[in-house]
Amino acid sequence: MRGSTPAPGSEFVRYGGNTSCVAIARDGEDPSLLLDAGTGLTRVSRLLDGRPFRGTILLGHLHWDHTQGLPFFRSGDQDGAKVRLLLPAQDGGTAQALLARAMSPPHFPITPGELRGDWSFGHLEEGDHEIEGLTLRAREIPHKGGRTFGYRISDGQHTIAYLSDHHPASLGDGPSGFGPYHEAALDLADGVDVLIHDAQYTAEEFPARRAWGHSTIDYAIGLGATAGARRVLLFHHDPRRTDDELDQIARSVQSAPVPVTLAREGDCVPLS
Predict the structure, then answer these.
(1) What is the tens place of the pLDDT at every residue in 117-148?
(2) What is the 3-state secondary structure (H, E, C) of the chain?
(3) Fewer CB in a 10 Å sphere around the end CB: N or C, the chain?
(4) With a threshold of 0.85, does the pTM exceed it?
């Protein structure tokens, strides 16, 4: 739930310091769908308490803060694990080869193909898919430095949207100067129960960081309200943002036009 880098230290304990990973599970079952594989992926192993992971990992894109948990995913790197990893279709090689650019000697001792268990790696195209018994919609959204997907996931009763890294300013000026609401983002967020959205910067910070590929708190809330989301979960917190500063943000958004909460590491968000 942090963006860019982990945030260790006593000032980051209550909200947590690991990078992006969201686990999706049905009531009473182990998670079968993971969104991104940042350092937060290590907490999924703790959640499974030694049991092997059997399911799908969806990467929104290939930046380090969304992949660095893979080599340390104990529940996936063991006998009995069965993992399908999917990432946005792009040029440059197979999905496994693209991952191996950062996960292979001399950068790391092993390659993705050396993980234990039954792993498969593939590209995902834009469109609607059935994955782990859920309906998934994948759309490309603006983000600097590589093809990036946002996701909409539904079990037929409840729906979430996941836009962890979103750079609306790439489209030019729009609402409050942050860029227009992107058609794909509106499509993914339309009427969802929960919109999980990049909220790395404040409006005051944004001008100096306009080219860095991320969104603002105000933009995330505005997108959620425009799309008719029932709730916005602010995500991808700046790694320098302390617990006290996030508390202050939480207080400041209480009068927003849509219910807003801030993501905390380890939180469970029930949809039923």
Answers:
(1) 999 999 999 999 999 999 999 999 877 767 89
(2) CECCCCCCCHHHCCCCCCECCEEECCCCCCCCEEECCCCCHHHHHHHHCCCCCEEEEECCCCCHHHCCCHHHCCCCCCCCCEEEEEEECCCCCCHHHHHHCCCCCCCCCCCHHHCCCEEEEEEECCEEEEECCEEEEEEECCCCCCCCEEEEEECCCCEEEEECCCCHHHHCCCHHHCCCCCHHHHHHHCCCCEEEEECCECCCCHHHHCCCCCCEHHHHHHHHHHHCCCCEEEECECCCCCHHHHHHHHHHCCCCCCCEEECCCCCCCCCC
(3) C
(4) yes
